[in-house]
Amino acid sequence: MKIEKIHHVAYRCKDAKETVEWYRDMLNMDFILAIAEDHVPSTHEPDPYMHIFLDAGDGNVLAFFELPTKPEMGRDPNTPIWVQHIAFKVKDRDALIEYKEHLEAKGVEVLGVTDHSIFHSIYFFDPNGHRIELACPDPEEDAMLEKLNDVKWEMLEEWSRTKKAPKHADWMHKKELSGV
Fold first, then answer.
1. What is the pLDDT of residues 40-86, one digit of tens each?
2. Could you tell me which residue ranges the VOC domain spans (predicted)?
3. pTM of the prediction?
């Protein structure tokens, strides 16, 4: 028994049409499917919804629900805004910079480029308040991933015991955090 891949991930949106148009215009995602019904299939609950699906590339699907009868969307006030996010991979740094410039030209506030060593990222919010990350691989990604793979279990065990950040991978953000 083994999971094959993520079929889709689903989030809530404020306005389905606005969300489709934003992801099309800002991230060049195709609108691939819409389902709207008056009853929730899994629970049989009477509750109208619009369920939209977007092509996030390479067989990945990003979905949203608009729920007009439910209270306004919120977020967990105990979780920092930077924690919950959707990250999409782009080809390389040139593509990342092109997206950054495109988004900023459309009035989207963009944070970064942030250097995570193994990859580089920009961050921004969609019209629903979901944090989005675009990430491109570093040219030395494979070697760094191998280095991280060698210490992942030690790091997890140490974290589990101490709840303090192990120093096995402190090299990753040294350059970013030092401002060099």
1. 999 999 999 999 999 999 999 999 999 999 999 998 999 999 999 99
2. 5-137
3. 0.92
Q: How many C-beta neighbours within 10 Å does residue 96 have?
A: 22
What average pLDDT score do residues 96-122 get? 97
Which residues are CB-neighbours of 72 under 8 A, at least 6 positions away? 14
DSSP-derived secondary structure letter, 151:
H
Burial of 136 from C-beta contacts in 10 A (0-12 / 13-18 / 19+): buried
What is the distance between the alpha carbons of residues 155 and 140, in angstroms, rounded to a whole number? 22
Q: Which residues contact 107 (CB under 8 A, 6 or more apart)?
A: none
C-alpha 1/C-alpha 97 separation (Å) is: 41
Taking residues 81-99, report their average pLDDT.
96
Per-residue pLDDT of 99-110, as tens digits, reads 999 999 999 999
| Beta strands in 40-99, from DSSP E residues, in sequence order | 46-55, 61-66, 85-89
Gap between the Cα atoms of 101 and 98, Å rounded: 5
Q: What are the structure tokens assigned to 113, written together?
A: 């480029």
